[in-house]
Amino acid sequence: MIIRIMGEGQVEIAEGDIDVLNTLDSELEAAIETDDEAQFRSKLHALLDKVRQIGKPLPDDALEPSELILPPADASIDEVRGMLGDSGLIPG
């Protein structure tokens, strides 16, 4: 799966790693639902850090279609809320 982090580029994630990302995504959604800025910031950074950790960066000149687009680390709650689908940022 190809994921783009806005402002950073693309990484390739193994299908087997999606479950751990879904867990972090659910925690991020919960923080958004309660409008908890501190938790939101913590959970967003945890999700992005995990994607960076387990993802294999694609070259800058790669033109692969992104299956998912994640917000940048400095995104606001409202910006991320607007990006959420029915199953969060990362579909299960």
Oligomeric composition of the shown chains: single chain
Q: What proportion strand?
A: 5-15%
Order of helices and strands: EEHHEEH
Shape: globular
Task: Count helical runs.
Answer: 3
Radius of gyration: 13 Å
Major β-sheet annotation? 4 strands, mixed
* Average pLDDT over all residues: 92
Low-confidence stretches: none
Protein name: PspA-associated domain-containing protein
Pfam families: PspAA
Domain PspA-associated: 1-92
Could you describe the 3D structure shown?
The chain has helices at 18-33, 37-54, 77-83, and strands at residues 2-5, 9-12, 56-57, 68-70. The protein has 92 residues and is an alpha+beta fold. It has a 4-stranded mixed sheet, covered by helices on one side. It starts with a strand and ends in a 9-residue tail after the last helix. This is PspA-associated domain-containing protein. Residues 1-92 form the PspA-associated domain. InterPro entries: PspA-assoc_dom.
List keywords for this structure.
PspA-assoc_dom, alpha+beta, 92 residues, PspA-associated domain-containing protein
Concise description?
This protein is an alpha+beta fold and 92 residues long.
List the helices and strands and how they pair.
Layout: E1 2-5, E2 9-12, H1 18-33, H2 37-54, E3 56-57, E4 68-70, H3 77-83
Parallel strand pairs: 1-4
Antiparallel strand pairs: 1-2, 2-3
